[in-house]
Amino acid sequence: MHNEKLKIFSTIEDLREELISINNFIHDNPELGNKEFKAVELITETLSKHEFEIEKGVVGLPTAFVATYKNRIGGPVIGLLCEYDALEKLGHACGHNLQAPSVLGAAIALKKHLGDNPATIKVIGTPAEETTSGKIPMTKAGLFDDLDVALMMHGGDRTTVDGKSLAVNNLEFIFKGKSAHAAVAPEKGISALDGVLMTFNGIEYLREHVRDDVRMHGIISEGGIAPNIVPERAVAKFSIRAADRPYLDEVVERVCNVAKGSALATGTEIIINKGKSLESKLNVQQLNDILLDNANQAGAKQITPPRSKTGSTDFSIVTQRVPGACIRVAFVPLGVSNHTKEWEVAGTSKNGHEAIIEGAKALSGTSYDLIKNPEKLKKVREEFEMVKESQHSMKQNVSI
């Protein structure tokens, strides 16, 4: 390991108690998306103290921020992204409290040991990952376009890098019928719930005829008022996922046709609302390898290859613009899923605190490697462009 990298890791150890204190404060003061004011105040105050220039409320998001430190003119621009929103009723059961202190440790230590190396470090606060997905408007506004790489840290049940993620579309189907007494005059009613139930059945039949990577899961959010009233209104919500956007668009169209057909068959009216849409992650293997190698150098535990099963993330839209990678650092036992009480409790545990330090070292070590070795960064960029071009060709060739 390079001597300067050892110094960076040593500085992170010196920051340990401060980083743990920041983590515990964010954990014990959970804030929902776009309301993370306490977290943002603490994070930006800390960065300002270390000579980062702070810009709050970027792209009109009250709890989004960019903190910048420039070392000489030129050099790569390294983006370190963090989330800090909590879950309703569950608090920090997704471990977002770990991210900011880990990124702070990486940014502050890296800044201290840049020496004569020209580089820009940007810490970018991205709100509301769990709800409205702050990275989407931030990406559309071009906020990440000047980055050479975008790096993130997330807690996990193992230490690995995020490989692929699934593109996703959220759908809401509102069925409207006609109410009537279900026993006295059912023939005068039109059941909106029948439309919903037929939609679920149709989607079940559709599963046989889509690719294995497709996920279609839904709930009935409204199903009627009482058993003796024919439901006048019923609502179903679905998340439809697939490994790539072109195929997902095909599947979404088929799902919507199932819902329209169900409305026609049951005599109901239907309104289709298309909600949040996320892209699949553009995977740059060389960047993943550098990040995982630095996690190993940091002494991280439970290191494994990328997961075969995955969900969706708003970080994926960033990776469509610039090379991006996310390190997941183990802090809960293998097999323990996020959005659970176990994750929330582990957020202030010894393992949680170690994950902060290991994540900070992995992020700073990767950043240092890319700053010191322009050839590595060039190869990462070349792979990114190659994968992006391949993805573009797939979109051009997809059958409609």
From TrEMBL:
<dbReference type="InterPro" id="IPR017144">
    <property type="entry name" value="Xaa-Arg_dipeptidase"/>
</dbReference>
<protein>
    <recommendedName>
        <fullName>Peptidase M20 domain-containing protein 2</fullName>
    </recommendedName>
</protein>
<dbReference type="InterPro" id="IPR017439">
    <property type="entry name" value="Amidohydrolase"/>
</dbReference>
<dbReference type="InterPro" id="IPR011650">
    <property type="entry name" value="Peptidase_M20_dimer"/>
</dbReference>
<dbReference type="Pfam" id="PF07687">
    <property type="entry name" value="M20_dimer"/>
</dbReference>
<dbReference type="InterPro" id="IPR052030">
    <property type="entry name" value="Peptidase_M20/M20A_hydrolases"/>
</dbReference>
<dbReference type="InterPro" id="IPR002933">
    <property type="entry name" value="Peptidase_M20"/>
</dbReference>
<feature type="domain" description="Peptidase M20 dimerisation">
    <location>
        <begin position="172"/>
        <end position="255"/>
    </location>
</feature>
<comment type="similarity">
    <text>Belongs to the peptidase M20A family.</text>
</comment>
<dbReference type="InterPro" id="IPR036264">
    <property type="entry name" value="Bact_exopeptidase_dim_dom"/>
</dbReference>
<dbReference type="GO" id="GO:0046657">
    <property type="term" value="P:folic acid catabolic process"/>
</dbReference>
<dbReference type="GO" id="GO:0071713">
    <property type="term" value="F:para-aminobenzoyl-glutamate hydrolase activity"/>
</dbReference>
<dbReference type="Pfam" id="PF01546">
    <property type="entry name" value="Peptidase_M20"/>
</dbReference>
<dbReference type="GO" id="GO:0005737">
    <property type="term" value="C:cytoplasm"/>
</dbReference>
<dbReference type="GO" id="GO:0016805">
    <property type="term" value="F:dipeptidase activity"/>
</dbReference>
